[in-house]
Design goal:
The structure holds two protein chains of two kinds.
Chain A: H1 3-29, H2 32-53, H3 59-77, H4 83-97, H5 102-107, H6 111-121, H7 128-139, H8 144-151, H9 155-172, H10 181-204, H11 216-230, H12 235-248, H13 274-289, H14 296-309, H15 318-332, H16 335-349, H17 351-361, H18 372-383, H19 387-400, H20 404-416
Chain B: E1 2-10, H1 20-35, E2 39-44, E3 52-57, E4 60-65, E5 73-82, H2 86-103, E6 110-115
Antiparallel strand pairs in B: 1-5, 1-6, 2-5, 3-4
The chains are: A mainly alpha, B alpha+beta.
Chain lengths: ~425, ~120
């Protein structure tokens, strides 16, 4: 093995074991930020030790022993402030005498601990960017460098976010526990929001040529699957997973060989990942069984599912999509959802009906600078044969487009509308 | 990246009859991986005696029922995972094989880790 191979092997073992390490240490230390810090030290120890001594037969057990020893050392160094501190220490010392039993580690169902960890990382007290960074670090086991690369920001920015977030968590004395009742629903929605943010960041970002850039969609899917494994009765968690699986199923078809985006209706559907579509459909069905058909994520998933079901773009059930957008619009009251509804209605009933919806949202503040509004409008006007108005709309859209490629496309459409 | 890991063993190894300890340990490992969002599907296969082979040789299609006495290596099972890297898939395969070493002494076999074609990064 070369040094680079060993380094990658360490990180791979780390990613597998890291949530278990943190949860185990958090249980010992009753302090998540501290547990996180000490597991990072265990990673550093592995990075230092394994290249010399070789990858151990049981990497997980090695990491666990090391992390526990670090926790024990920490407790021994720390002043004995509380009586239970001493008790904790003696328990740990006894535990430490025994090597960690690999089978016992497999037996150890970390579901509840994992849920606690996720709830802590996604705590509503923390700003969004801190929640996403903490979730990727504490739950997915990404390093700071990897997170920085994924979000295309400097490493120092991510380090700072993490340091601040951990300080907030420590200072606020947040209970490291699973919320219950009404609190649970509120906290779970914060978790889902973080997962959704991570997915969208990966989904909308232009694919960089940095092949080391971690795939945020993959991480978000993994988080989504963890959440449903440990909270299997939460309809919206299934809805979100369905939405992510169904959107991710189109990845291979979304760009051409030159990396140019291909719009959904122009994609080669043979490239859609049918295995992933099936998984998405199963999750959506589960969300609906649990009574969550009307949820924010489940509705969006149901819309994407309409596309996934159509073997050809012409077979798309636009009427159903329009109805689902109407439901989603009632949930979100977002003019952007209305804009999408207008597109679907325009496809289902014709451009005049779509245009009527657009006319009602033209003054929405959120859309004032949104180039897609005049762009969609131009499209409908062109289909109605109102070419002068269509051209003006495309030009207005081009003026608002932030991205050069999009601006050029819109100006070309304006020129072609005669 | 999506991977398929395929376990093969010499026919003489009777992979169709893993020890209860091995079955239990494999079950726990699979459970952990599913809950961690990495494993999408896995399964053990029935013995090759019950298999059917559809082959094309010299442009001729034929259907053959087992047993296939000439088969030396037999596929025992597979898993499909979605991993951030090949190293992760390999780490899991090593862990999986270590369980065989622990719970089925004397067993010999191979776990082959293959990336799916057509996925980003593969």
């Amino acid at each position: 093995m070369t040094a680079a191979d060993t380094h990658r092997a360490v990180l791979a073992a780390w990613r597998v074991e890291q949530p278990r390490l943190i949860t185990s240490l958090a249980r010992m230390l009753r302090d998540v930020p501290l547990a996180e810090e000490l597991t990072q030290e265990a990673l550093l120890a592995a990075l230092e030790h394994w290249p010399r001594a070789g990858v151990p037969d049981r990497p997980g057990a090695w990491l666990m022993t090391t992390a526990r020893r670090l926790a024990l050392n920490h407790l021994q160094r720390a002043p004995m402030l509380e009586r239970n501190h001493a008790m904790l220490l003696s328990e740990l010392e006894q535990e430490q005498l025994l090597p960690p039993d690999y089978e016992a580690m497999l037996d150890d169902d970390i579901g509840d601990e994992m849920l606690r960890l996720i709830f802590t990382a996604c705590h509503p007290l923390l700003p969004y960017d801190a929640r996403t960074a903490l979730a990727l670090r504490m739950v997915c086991g990404l390093t700071t460098v990897e997170i920085a690369r994924a979000f295309l920001v400097p490493e120092a920015t991510i380090s700072q976010r993490i340091v601040r977030a951990k300080r907030t968590l420590s200072e606020s004395g947040l209970a490291y526990e699973t919320p219950h009742g009404g609190e649970l629903a509120a906290r779970l929605s914060s978790v889902l929001e973080v997962v959704y943010l991570i997915f969208n960041e990966g989904y909308t970002a232009a694919r960089g040529d940095d092949w080391l850039r971690p795939d945020l969609c993959g991480e978000a899917l993994r988080l989504g699957r963890i959440v449903i494994a440990i909270a299997p009765d939460e309809a919206e968690a299934h809805g979100l997973l369905a939405l992510m699986e169904l959107n991710a199923s189109r990845t291979a078809a979304r760009t051409d060989a030159a990396g140019e985006p291909i719009l959904l209706l122009d994609q080669d559907r043979a490239l859609w990942d049918q295995l992933q579509i099936q998984r998405g459909m199963r999750s959506l069905a589960r969300a609906e069984e649990l009574g969550g058909a009307g949820g924010f994520y489940a509705l969006q998933a149901a819309i994407v599912a309409c596309h996934a079901r159509a073997a050809r773009a012409a077979e798309t059930d636009w009427l159903r999509i329009a109805l689902l957008y109407a439901e989603l619009s009632a949930v979100t009251r977002s003019p952007i959802v209305e804009l999408n509804r207008a597109i679907a209605v325009g496809m289902a009933e014709g451009p005049a009906s779509g245009l009527a919806i657009l006319d009602r949202i033209t003054d929405a503040r959120a859309l004032k600078t949104y180039h897609l509004l005049p762009s969609v409008r131009g499209d409908m006007l062109r289909r109605l044969g109102r070419h002068d108005e269509a051209r003006a709309a495309f030009e207005a859209a081009a003026a608002l487009a932030g991205n050069k490629r999009e601006r050029e496309l819109l100006l070309r459409r304006a020129r072609e509308t005669v | 990246m999506r991977f398929m890991s395929i376990v093969t063993a010499p026919r003489s190894q009777q992979y169709g009859h893993p020890t209860p300890e091995l079955l239990e340990a494999m079950g726990k490992l699979a459970d952990r991986e599913i809950k961690a969002g990495r494993m999408i599907d896995n399964g053990g296969l029935m013995p090759i005696d019950q298999a059917v082979r559809i082959t094309i040789v010299d442009g001729k299609l034929s259907v053959l029922d087992g047993p296939f006495v000439e088969a030396k290596e037999v596929i025992g099972g597979y898993s499909i995972t979605e991993m951030a890297s090949k190293e992760e898939a390999v780490a899991l395969a090593i862990e999986f094989m270590q369980l065989h070493k622990d719970h089925m002494p004397g067993w010999e076999g191979t776990c082959e880790v293959r990336a799916f074609a057509g996925f980003a990064g593969s």
